[in-house]
Design a protein that fits this description.
Blueprint (H helix, E strand, L loop, with lengths): L1 E14 L2 E6 L2 E7 L6 H13 L1 E4 L5 E4 H4 L2 E6 L21 H18 L4 E3 L6 E16 H4 L3
Parallel strand pairs: 3-6, 6-7
Antiparallel strand pairs: 1-2, 1-3, 1-8, 4-5
Helix pairs in contact: 1-3
Length: about 150
């Protein structure tokens, strides 16, 4: 699984002009599922994100996690994180998991965030054309890839 994590002051997702998910301070998480990803990747990624210390303490240092600050998450499916643009000008998405695999795994990832203690987890709509509103705080943007991170 791959995730682009943005620390935000607020975020929202709209489908056809209707707000389907929104949060205050926390993370907007663009998450993609790749071929071969499963429950271990979803659980590991949720645990990593919940404990990642990228919120400032009283001295302005990144010493506080999402759980420490009581932040929320907005999870948005993003198969394009698996784009392969090495050849030509049109990216290939063959490394992305098919929808019937990806959708339930993204739901499981969100459930794992809740199980880790994240107080509010909002979701986009899988497969929909979404307008994502991100009010980046910092800016702080982190790339996580379970294939790379779970190996070490």
């Amino acid at each position: 699984m791959r995730a682009v994590l943005q620390r935000v002051s607020r975020g929202a997702v709209r489908v056809n002009g209707e707000t389907v998910g929104e949060i205050g301070a926390g993370f907007v998480i663009l998450v993609g599922v790749g071929q071969g990803d499963g429950e271990p990747q979803a659980e590991w990624l949720a645990r990593k994100i919940a404990g990642l210390r990228v919120f400032e303490d009283a001295e302005g240092k990144f010493n506080r996690s999402l759980l420490d600050v009581g932040g929320s998450c907005l999870v948005v499916s993003q198969f394009t994180l698996f784009a392969d643009a090495r050849k030509g000008r049109r990216p290939s998405f063959v490394q992305a998991a098919p929808p019937e695999v990806a959708e339930p795994l993204i739901e499981r990832f969100a459930a794992h965030l809740r199980a880790e203690g994240v107080p509010h987890v909002a979701m986009g709509v899988f497969g929909a054309r979404m307008a994502v509103e991100i009010h980046n705080d910092g800016p702080v943007t982190i790339w996580l890839d379970t294939d790379e991170l779970m190996r070490s």
